[in-house]
Amino acid sequence: KMGYMEKDTEESYFGAGWHKKFVVLTGWDEGEAHLFYYDKETDSEATGVLFVNDVEVDAVDKVDRVLTLQGSQRRFRFRCATEAEARTWRVALVEARSNGGHKCVTGVASTAWMAEKHAKTCDKCRQLFSASNRKHHCRCCGRIFCTECSNKPKVSLQPYPAPVRCCNGCNDTQAKQAAEERARAERVRVFVSKHLSLLEEGGDFECLARADLLRSIALDSMTQMSLQYRKLVVTESLHPDAAARMAGAVRGDAANTVSRIKAGTLRVGASVAALRPKHIVDAFKPAEATKNLKSIRARTLEAAQNTAESVSNIGTHAAGTITDLVEGPRQHEIEVRHLKGVLDYADNPTILAKNPQAAPCTLALFVQSATVPLELVAASPEDKQRWIEALTELMVLSEDVGTEVLLVQKARQETSAAVAEKIERRKLERQSLVMDDVRAQDVKASTMR
Predict the structure, then answer these.
(1) How far is Cα 19 from Cα 40, in angstroms, rounded to an integer?
(2) Which of 117, 152, 153 is nearest to 135 (CA)?
(3) What is the C-alpha separation between 87 and 90, in angstroms, rounded?
(4) Contact 59/82 with Cβ under 8 angstroms?
(5) Residues 398/229, Cβ–Cβ less than 8 Å
């Protein structure tokens, strides 16, 4: 928001009154809002600056063309041309204040300083300034403090070539942010050296539901893209020994079917064998006859259902393998930002009951849009643990904007280094060719002589 307004100059020197100023309101990029005012629109240096978060703004619904900004130490008044324009400025000031106060940017100084004539007391402790209690500008937030409230070691800030003075609050914030930046950089270094290469090279996993299916997972090659928008590429293909595995699965299902039929037959036979003469006499009673018929019918139905389920499993295994043979490998992609979690299935009771041999090597990948997790069986428990750690770090770092910057910088550095190495290699090749030509000409000249 910018435009001309009249500023009330309340100082006692000559020239007090309303003076036309060109006013610029900043602070829409989630930074601290400032109100700069200039004598002319073309001036490069501001006459003054107000910290919007340090003043109270008039109510938005006030009907008056004079804006009153009440600070802790003095009042500022601006007069607009119309009441409608004044209301627009009030709305803009309130919205600018909603961005919050000063936010320290690591290693960067403030571009706006509070005018010394506006500061009568320290911004922190409110002690009056005097000849013995001097004013000090904080280079980080631009406010004015006393010596006691700005006595911590100086801080290196851009664009200053040497460390400069900051208030104690900004000093602590800068130190904390610098420590967080170092920790983030170290975490990125570990991720790149330990996990990123594993993710980009990819790995092969067996499918828990189908022993003849192989799943390969790898991070895509879009190194210049933000980490959360990169994708995990999942390729499903038949295992090299799929035929043998399918035959084993079918044999297992057939054996399971036979055992279920046998168990069902034995239970039905046991029900019949349990009948005694007394039971035969009682069987003619309506209630007992109904009870016995229900028991035999339930056990027969259970045996039939188990048999049907086993036969269905045999058909599913065979149909899945035949379909994969015809269609070939299938691929689908998972965006990193859609990953919701990685779980170790080593102690999962369902997996232990279904496949106790595969449980120690099984992990589950939970995706936002999927109704069931992606179950993967690694080659070994150690391999499974490496992938769990790598995928967990991938999800955590993809949500950190600071990490994104470091990863992009590292990718650019690696690209620049690769380009520089390629240029140097070509330069050496050209030099070698030139030297070969010179030697050939020398040999030819010596032969002619």
Answers:
(1) 11
(2) 117
(3) 5
(4) no
(5) no
Residue 263 has a pLDDT of: 62
The answer to whether the CB of 96 falls within 8 A of the CB of 33 is: yes
Residue 439 in tokens: 């030697």
Confidence of residue 148 (pLDDT cuts 50, 70, 90): very high
- The per-residue pLDDT for 64 is 83
Q: Where are the beta strands (DSSP E) in 27-103?
A: 34-38, 48-51, 66-70, 75-79
The long-range contacts involving 58-64, CB below 8 angstroms and separated by at least 24 positions, are 58/90, 59/90, 60/87, 60/90, 60/91, 60/94, 62/87, 62/90
Write phi, then psi, for 302 (nearest 5 degrees).
Answer: -60, -45
* 3-state class (DSSP) for residue 150: helix
Orientation angle between helical segments 168-190 and 381-398, nearest 10 degrees: 140
Predicted confidence at residue 12, as pLDDT, reads 45
Q: pLDDT digits over 318-369, tens only?
A: 555 545 544 557 888 888 888 888 989 888 888 888 788 888 888 888 888 7
CA–CA distance, 139 with 170 (Å, rounded to integer): 9
Enclosing H/E stretch for 312: helix 286-327
Contact 387, 363 (CB under 8 A): yes
